[in-house]
């Protein structure tokens, strides 16, 4: 039996998804050596089972629907071609190109399952070289992401179920698909598979879809899903499931639905169960509480950091990559004794996690939102003014006949600045960054009046929103 190997790096990153890759990259930019430990595919959930493949499944259907909204046009598509295009984005679930990037950047890649074994030490098992011990001179960073939550539905252990992984990597389109959960994943994949040829039934325990967003956003998405033929069952509990031959029977009170596949889209939780956090006095299964530089709280010595979903702060790929950049820079600064800039919007402070988290729901209509909802702003004690208008400008009328959308601004009247914005409609995702800049920059509403939108683009909705804001209520 071979002896365990041991290596030392400045930074040991556990988890090689987009977040871990960015931590390692920014540590290297700071002049430190870095290693990434990954048990699956380098690039992680977003590259192979979440963001990229799911949006590839959605995009063709959205484009065809957009064409059909223009007069004198027809369009159709081949579902097999959509699956093939999806496969191209995942490189057929090969991470060769990601490994080439990492090694080309000077980042070491170690395969296997990692566990903390003590201060600055990580044991890696199950890799091609057997057990290996990695020691960090400066920092260990946990970027282990999140895992799906299985709901307590009787009979789930007797049937075949999908998580988002099985859905986004499906090789065939099921004739009948059940979706449990009306959040982002449930709504996006329900629409994707309905347009690819499934008959979809979506069951949501609560009374609305997309409950974390503005109410009108969920209502508009629900109406669109129903119009496309999705059997939408809101405020309904899935009482149990049972096998029905090769199919699955979903029992909903006094009715039942038979499906060929059942997608569980009931949320995710931070992945800290088997990372060894108990060795440093933390509780497995719980999110890692971090300060704005990513330093894990409750661990002495300023050596353990975390970023991304594992912290529970803002479980979105782009927000995790933002936190990763902060963490990499903070580790670099501490390594040379530089004082950290931890004030609001400081170089080493992930301030945006608290006030300006952008998110897009890639349904049709799209939902693009940043900052606080009306309810969140009021709960925070802000002197709120809400501006709502229909999405009706020259740019939107050119985008689609009968364009139907809605826009909302949430304004802090005490400071005269925007604290939240939501757009719902076809092709609104690309408008979101302007709102994000306005929130992050705390641009006064009076100054926004001088940001002139180009005509005829959909951004003209900003002019209409500002006109409505300037009109006495």
TrEMBL record:
The keyword Flavoprotein applies. The keyword Flavoprotein applies. Keywords: FAD, Flavoprotein. This is NAD(P)/FAD-dependent oxidoreductase. Residues 357-462 form the Pyridine nucleotide-disulphide oxidoreductase dimerisation domain. Residues 9-319 form the FAD/NAD(P)-binding domain. It comes from Pseudonocardia xinjiangensis. Transmembrane segments: none annotated. Belongs to the class-I pyridine nucleotide-disulfide oxidoreductase family. The lineage of its organism: Bacteria, Bacillati, Actinomycetota, Actinomycetes, Pseudonocardiales. InterPro entries: FAD/NAD-bd_sf (IPR036188), FAD/NAD-binding_dom (IPR023753), FAD/NAD-linked_Rdtase_dimer_sf (IPR016156), Pyr_nuc-diS_OxRdtase (IPR001100), Pyr_nucl-diS_OxRdtase_dimer (IPR004099). Its cofactor is FAD.
């Amino acid at each position: 039996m071979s002896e365990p190997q041991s290596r030392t790096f400045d930074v040991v990153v556990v988890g090689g998804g987009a977040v871990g890759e960015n931590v390692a990259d920014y540590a290297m930019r700071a002049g430190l050596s870095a290693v990434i430990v990954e048990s699956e595919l380098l690039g992680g959930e977003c590259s192979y089972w979440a963001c990229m493949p799911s949006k590839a499944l959605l995009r063709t259907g959205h484009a065809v629907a957009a064409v059909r909204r223009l007069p004198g046009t027809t369009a159709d598509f081949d579902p097999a071609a959509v699956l093939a295009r999806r496969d191209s984005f995942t490189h057929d679930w090969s991470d060769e190109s990601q490994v080439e990037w990492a090694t080309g950047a000077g980042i070491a890649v170690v395969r296997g399952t990692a566990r903390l074994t003590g201060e600055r030490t990580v044991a890696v098992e199950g890799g091609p070289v057997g057990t290996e011990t990695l020691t960090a001179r400066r920092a260990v960073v946990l970027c282990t992401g999140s895992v799906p939550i299985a709901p307590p539905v009787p009979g789930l252990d007797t049937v075949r179920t999908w998580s988002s992984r099985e859905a986004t990597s499906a090789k065939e389109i099921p004739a009948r698909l059940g979706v449990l959960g009306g959040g982002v994943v449930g709504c996006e994949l329900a629409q994707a598979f309905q347009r690819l040829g499934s008959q979809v039934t979506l069951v949501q325990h609560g009374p609305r879809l997309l409950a974390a967003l503005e109410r009108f956003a969920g209502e508009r998405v629900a109406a669109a899903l129903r119009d496309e033929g999705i059997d939408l069952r809101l405020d309904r509990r899935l009482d149990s499931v049972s096998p029905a031959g090769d199919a699955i029977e979903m029992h909903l009170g006094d009715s039942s639905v038979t499906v060929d596949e059942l997608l569980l889209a009931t949320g995710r939780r931070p992945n800290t169960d088997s990372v060894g956090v108990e060795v440093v006095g933390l509780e497995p299964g719980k999110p890692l509480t971090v300060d704005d530089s990513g330093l894990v709280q409750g661990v002495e010595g300023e050596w353990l950091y975390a970023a991304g979903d594992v912290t529970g702060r803002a479980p979105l790929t782009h927000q995790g990559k933002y936190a990763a950049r902060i963490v990499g820079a903070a580790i670099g600064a501490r390594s040379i004794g530089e004082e950290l800039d931890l004030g609001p919007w400081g170089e080493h402070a992930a301030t945006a996690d608290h006030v300006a988290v952008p998110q897009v729901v890639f349904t049709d209509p799209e939902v693009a939102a940043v900052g606080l909802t009306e309810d969140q702003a009021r709960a925070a004690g802000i002197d709120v003014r809400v501006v709502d208008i229909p999405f009706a400008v020259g740019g939107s009328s050119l985008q689609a006949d009968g364009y139907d959308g809605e826009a909302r601004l949430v304004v802090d009247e005490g400071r005269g600045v925007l604290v939240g914005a939501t757009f719902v409609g076809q092709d609104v995702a690309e408008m979101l960054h302007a709102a994000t800049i306005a929130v992050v920059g705390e641009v006064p509403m009076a100054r926004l009046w001088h940001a002139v939108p180009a005509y005829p683009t959909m951004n003209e909705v900003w002019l209409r929103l500002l006109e409505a804001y300037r009109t006495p209520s």
